[in-house]
Amino acid sequence: MRYFITFSYRGTDFHGSQTQPNGNTVQAEMEAAFATILRQPVPLTFAGRTDAGVHAEKMVAHFDWSDHLPANLGARLNNLLPDSIAIHDICRVTDEAHARFDATARTYYYRITTRKDPFIYINHTRVAKGLDFEAMNEAAQRLLGKQDFSSFCRTHTDVKTMICDVREARWVQENETEAYFVITADRFLRNMVRAVVGTLFEVGKHKMTAEQFGEVIAAHDRCRAGHSAPAEGLSIVEIIYPKNIYLCEN
């Protein structure tokens, strides 16, 4: 039987989400907790990977188990896991459901602040005052639609296509000192959101026009885009799946 597990984590405590030989990861912590409770290895397949320092307010993974799970599994996992990982839900799904390939949309937030506050830096990036949000939003509209986003992808990435369908891309100013960039698409390339945000910062500083931002997209060349924005401001906040894959209320 296949299950989806929904969870969140603070990325600053990990060297990324998925298991790697050097450094602690979210997947390694979670699989170790599963093995302790269920007394055998339980491989997890994540909906996507996040880099070191990137957060997840909502992440989904699937796993297979031959029998019904203990009713209190989520609570027992939370007792074993560090404070930087929280399990929210475990739900039975169809046996063919896939946490990565069945996702129809993903949404990221990139949060920024202009004020010095040591408590907000956990999930915000501090930036200088004076960014032109009107110009950045004009440029962000050029991201919408289905197109090749090679200019915002980490080089030497092994993927079959650079095409993504971006459905929302805009800056939201929450108050005088804080704002966030929201972007929704069917899929994202490695480092794509941070590269997009870093390039939009160039627009906001009037070092690049909205038209030039569009030219960067059309160039399909990572060297034409700006530097990637720091990891700490980025969080994945939503992942959407077809309702018919769930076999429990969701």
Note the topology:
Layout: E1 2-9, H1 26-38, E2 45-46, E3 55-64, H2 73-80, E4 85-93, E5 105-113, E6 125-126, H3 133-140, E7 145-148, E8 163-173, E9 178-185, H4 192-204, H5 210-219, E10 234-240
Parallel strand pairs: 3-10, 5-6
Antiparallel strand pairs: 1-3, 1-4, 2-3, 5-9, 5-10, 7-8, 8-9
How would you describe the overall organization of this protein?
This protein has 2 domains: 100 residues, Alpha-Beta Plaits (2-Layer Sandwich); 133 residues, Alpha-Beta Plaits, CATH 3.30.70.660. Strands 1, 2, 3, 4, 5, 6, 7, 8, 9 and 10 form a 10-stranded mixed β-sheet that branches. With 250 residues, it is an alpha+beta fold. Helix content is 21%, strand content 28%. The longest helix is centred in the N-terminal third of the chain and has 13 residues.
Sheet having the most strands: 10 strands, mixed
Q: Label the overall shape.
A: globular
CATH classification class of the largest domain: Alpha Beta
- Rg result: 19 Å
CATH superfamily of the largest domain: Pseudouridine synthase I, catalytic domain, C-terminal subdomain
End-to-end separation in angstroms reads 17 Å
List how many beta strands DSSP finds: 10
Give the percentage of residues in beta strands. Answer: 25-35%
Q: What's the helix-strand series?
A: EHEEHEEEHEEEHHE
Q: How many domains is the backbone divided into?
A: 2
